[in-house]
Amino acid sequence: MNINAKIPDGPIEEKWSRYKADAKLISPGNRGNYKIIVVGTGLAGSSASATLSELGFQVEAFTHHDSPSRAHSVAAQGGINAAKNYQNDGDSIWRMFADTVKGGDFRSREANVYRMAECSASLIDQAVAQGVPFAREYGGYLSNRSFGGVQVSRTFYARGQTGQQLLKGAYQAMMRQVATGRVRLHTRCEMLDLIVKENRARGIVSRNLITGNIQSHTADAVVLATGGYGKIYYLSTLAMHCNATAVWRAHKKGALFAAASWTQFHPTSLPQLGDHQSKLTLMSESLRNDGRIWVPKKKNDTRKPNDIPENERDYYLERKYPSYGNLAPRDISSRAAKEQIDAGKGVGPMKNAVFLDFGTAIEKEGKKAIESRYGNLFAMYQNITGMNAYSEPMMIAPSAHFSMGGLWVNYELMSNVEGLFVAGEANFADHGANRLGANSLLQACVDGYFILSYTIMNFLSGQNPQPRDPDKEAEAEVKKRIQQLLDIKGTTPAERFHKDLGKILYQKCGLSRHSGDLKAAAEEIKTLKEQFYSDLCIPGSEKDLNYELEKAGRTADYFELAQLIVKDALHREESCGAHFREEHQTQGGEARRNDADFGFVSLWEHTPAGFQLHKELLTFEFLEPSERDYS
After folding, report:
1. What is the pLDDT of residue 498?
2. Which of 41, 320, 371, 561 could form a disulfide with 375 if both were Cys (CB 3.0 to 4.6 A apart)?
């Protein structure tokens, strides 16, 4: 298979400008003859739908939510990065590019990362024009704060609601186009398959979650903007409805899956407090600007945090990484927390957390200043835990969060299946082996507002619009798959299988991995998958609202994806970013890359014989790969 990233020639500062200058166009009068399907209505999907329809294309947008505004983009609280240098602290597009490539442990494509940094400034202007209420300084300038892995302040924010406010901007832009008739919105519809003819994406098959109706939809291009697959770990920061079905179905129809095992564990999630939980709650990384992370120096310390004197506290991030302190990158901060917890210094009812303490900041600046920055986050924490973080430290713990892996795309955000474009977290393109905080909202917005409008038009230019006939064969295939699940008639609900699968992945393919554990995980997943297909229980019918059927279909896809995740992790004999192989670490316990043997992104093809590996070799023309040092 020929892997062509289609990166434009020339200096990195000019690649995107040259691409836009050379891109083919379609006249405004003819754009309405082409139809584009957009699956997902989070930031990437809504912004893509709004932008493409504004240009004159017909757009059909699909969401399994009752409203696009329910998309999980609302949960990204802390901020969005942009190289505006409003603080005059030395920031630039180049510095943002370098920070992001380094933060991803030199496992990302240089050209894509630079383009994201380059477009970041325009994105802030776009959001302000839409009315996004970014925080402002006293004089009216937009305010900034810092996130992990950087030494400048480039993060724009709307208190602790940045994702929600950005999504409102994209949502209103899309709904404006719904009102004009250029966007046809399908709510409560879940994509269950991709229609591919002669290696060309021709549409999707969806299920109406209320009526159970299976329907095919054909188009000239398909955009998947369905988010990440971190919910495969069951206990994660993702909403319960988040799933991998859309990308996995595309993978099984020929789309390459890249770096499947690169999953980020967020260091500031609320810890698990019991076996009853079905998800975990994210506390924004922005809290690490003012909060100090520590554990008791004494193992199994049962004292209340305020009873532990200063000299008996270990501010381990400040000790290990003095240059970055509590704003060390997420992968490093999460592993450092796990190290303390595993050493018997964990806190909380299950001894699985560390403290995030605002005492110093409140003493220095006053409660009112901290409340103005994080008031809604502190209120959320108290609502969930019953604890007041103004008077005692928060408890936080690492949890599954963001998927750096995803469907492979080239520079144009098109997969190896022609006409299938992938945006936002659903693709692998920008973050390497570890995402820096506040870059997820940026990638989603940049892909949807600024990139797809050029690349999709370039692809469609010169092609005739395709017939809109329904694909009955594809519909029958989906109906057959649903019926096979219903016919099992076992005794165990899908939720139980998903929970057990998540435990296997957390324990054996989580924050740290070892070949022995990964081999054991592969066998355990295989056994659990066999049990799933022999003992799954789905009450009810496929012809109406059936949450258990929805869960079953998603869990079936999770089993296959989990097998690929473990295979990918076992194959990569190095540590890089969030992929930490215990066999490959420095004397100080940090990740040790193997650039000579693994300086590539793993691309997996689904074949009848199993997963077949392909490689996209990573070349660094503008940055010299180096060992990450945040000390």
Report:
1. 98
2. 371
Largest CA distance in the chain: 73
- Sign of torsion over alpha carbons 229, 230, 231, 234: positive
Instruction: Give every CB contact of residue 192 below 8 A, 6+ residues apart in sequence.
Output: 205, 206, 207, 214, 245, 249, 478, 481, 482, 553
Token digits for 188? Answer: 């409560």
The number of C-alpha atoms within 13 Å of 392 and in the hemisphere containing its C-beta is: 16
d(CA 185, CA 198): 28
Backbone angles phi, psi at 86, to 5 degrees: -65, -25
Average pLDDT over residues 248-265: 98
* Residues 245 and 190 sit within 8 Å (Cβ to Cβ): yes
Please tell me the chain's helix, strand, coil percentages from 3-state DSSP, rounded to the nearest 5.
40, 20, 40
Catalytic pick among 109, 330, 373, 593: 330
Supply 264's token pair: 């980020």
With bands split at pLDDT 50, 70 and 90, how would you rate the model's confidence at 629? Answer: confident
Q: Please check whether residue 185 is in contact with residue 425, taking contact to mean a CB–CB distance below 8 angstroms.
A: no
H-type alpha helices, 69-133 = 93-103, 110-130
Q: Are 603 and 615 in contact (CB under 8 A)?
A: yes
Lookup result for tokens 């060390």? 328
pLDDT recorded at residue 472: 97
Beta-carbon count within 10 A of 365 CB: 14
Mean pLDDT, rounded, for 488-514: 98
Residue 415 tokens, joined: 């997969």
* φ, ψ for residue 317, nearest 5 deg: -70, -40
Q: How far is Cα 120 from Cα 113, in angstroms, rounded to an integer?
A: 11
Distance in angstroms (rounded) separating the CA atoms of residues 321 and 332: 10
- Asked if 39 contacts 222 with a C-beta cutoff of 8 angstroms, the reply is yes
Residues in Cβ contact with 544 at an 8 Å cutoff, skipping those fewer than 6 apart: 210, 211, 212
Decide the pairing of beta strands 354-357 and 394-403: antiparallel
Q: The tokens 């022999």 sit on which residue?
A: 534
Ordered DSSP codes for 233-283: GSSBSS-TT--SHHHHHHHHTT--EE-TT-EEEEEEEPPP-STT-S---B-
CB 108 within 8 A of CB 102: no
Residue 13 identity: E
The reply to whether 330 belongs to the active site is yes
From CA 239, how far away is CA 167, in angstroms rounded? 16
Neighbours of 341 (CB within 10 A): 21
Q: Which residues pair with 289 in a beta bridge?
A: none
For residue 110 the two structure tokens come to 């240089």
Confidence of residue 631 (pLDDT cuts 50, 70, 90): confident
* pLDDT attached to residue 77: 85
**Interaxial angle between packed helices 515-535 and 547-571, expressed in degrees from 0 to 180 and rounded to the nearest 10:** 160
Task: Answer whether residue 275 shows pLDDT above 90.
Answer: no
CA 371 to chain centre: 28
DSSP state of 412: T
